[in-house]
Amino acid sequence: MHMPVTIIGAGLGGLTLARVLHVRGIPVTVYEAESSPSARTQGGMLDIHDYNGQLALEAAGLMDEFHAIVLEGRQAMRVLDRDGTVLLDKADDGTGGRPEVQRSELRRILLDSLPAGTVRWGRKVSSTRTLGEGRHEVTFADGGTVSTSLLVGADGAWSRVRPLLSTATPEYAGTSFVETYLFDADTRHPAAAKAVGGGMLIAPAPGREIFAHRESGDTLHTYVALTEPQDWFDAIDFTDAAAATARIAREFDGWAPELTALITDGDTAPVLRPHYTLPTGHRWDRVPGVTLLGDAAHLALPNGEGANLALLDGAELGQAIAAHPDDIETALTEYEQAMFLRSAEPATFEGVELSEIFSGDNTTHGLIDMITEKGK
To answer: What end-to-end distance do the CA atoms of the chain give, in Å?
Structure first.
């Protein structure tokens, strides 16, 4: 196969696809809207699972690099009641089944594995259109264009490639995260650090939950989950950090101070992260010369699987293209059939469907019962 593969988006899925194609001698170019690899922070911790994400990294030939960035002990998980009582404390089992890494570090090893110039930075896509006979044109915000016989949309929730295949658009899922960080936690925020422990903390209540991860560099990264309509959040001025923090903290009045400190003592301004989803089982009819992967194809609630599925999408698409270099439509059909099946499965966390975790009836004891029952 001599025609280059054009990938839109230098996230984990797009870069995995680029790497798998590169090691198999297939030319590839990635176009990314961000101006550089360090243009913005790349999110927090990711647990990379041995049944999907790690399989992708193995296909990419990057397992040694992956093991080098694993943060030991971060598979630990604890569930606390709102009064701070520890109700479940699962130690890191050391099996490597879902080791934790920083998203930024995982992206770095993928970028480092590609030849210089593979990723074209600062190329924001404004539109795409079909040219016919399996070719498509991509128009960038600067007015430039590129045409290709194999276009892959790895450009996330608001994909500019998706309209070539589907009329589906993301819809608000009814929940949002408010994100905060505590730095130098063991010395500056010892009570909160003790509550979180060595890995992940979950403190659930109906419509109100606190998730926190211990990241690298003695950092606590907190996601405050709230089940509210969008206009509820619109009424909060997130440009006023103090006022926004106070408003969010009011939703946790009466909770243990070591838990509310994860909100009130934040070392960064609170950031709103609304959750959007595509319809479960989102799929499309085969369109010659174009496909999607990751959130562009199957955006779902955050559940620890999104990054893993994007990695696996990228790896499997690359393997399919390499297996059928002279029959791209067979490659795309083979990839999409497998991807459609797995993306139709309900979103889960620790084996529990997210619809149950985010339900208005969720409690600590109910969550523990669900987790322990699924673990039997």
So the answer is: 48
Q: What is the pLDDT of residues 7-26, one digit of tens each?
A: 999 999 999 999 999 999 99
Q: In the beta sheet, which residues pair with residue 276?
A: 172
Q: What is the pLDDT of residues 283-323, one digit of tens each?
A: 999 999 999 999 999 999 998 899 999 999 999 999 999 99
The CA-atom distances, in angstroms, between 79 and each of 51, 96, 142, 260, 309 are: 25, 21, 49, 15, 26
Q: In Å, what is the CA distance from 167 to each residue of 26, 131, 155, 177, 188?
A: 31, 18, 16, 27, 49
Residue 345, CA distances (Å) to 146, 158, 278, 280, 351 in order: 35, 22, 13, 8, 12
Contacts with 97 (C-beta within 8 Å, 6 or more apart), sequence order = 49, 50, 75
pLDDT at residue 149 tops 50: yes
User: Residue 140: which residues within 8 A CB-CB, separation 6 or more?
Assistant: 31, 123, 124, 125, 126, 146
Task: Calculate the alpha carbon distances from 341 to 141, 282, 334 in Å.
Answer: 35, 10, 11
104-117: string of b/e by CB count within 10 Å (b at 16+)?
bbbbbbbbebbeee
Confidence class for position 359, pLDDT limits 50, 70, 90: low
pTM value is 0.93
Question: Does the pLDDT at position 376 exceed 50?
Answer: no
What distance in Å separates the CA atoms of residue 284 and residue 24, rounded to the nearest whole number?
Answer: 28
C-alpha distances out from residue 269 to 40, 244, 257, 289, 344, Å: 15, 9, 19, 43, 36
332 three-state secondary structure: helix
SS3 category, 76: coil
Helices then strands (H, E): number in the chain? 14, 19
Query: Across the chain, what does the average pLDDT equal?
Result: 92
C-beta atoms surrounding 27 within 10 Å: 12
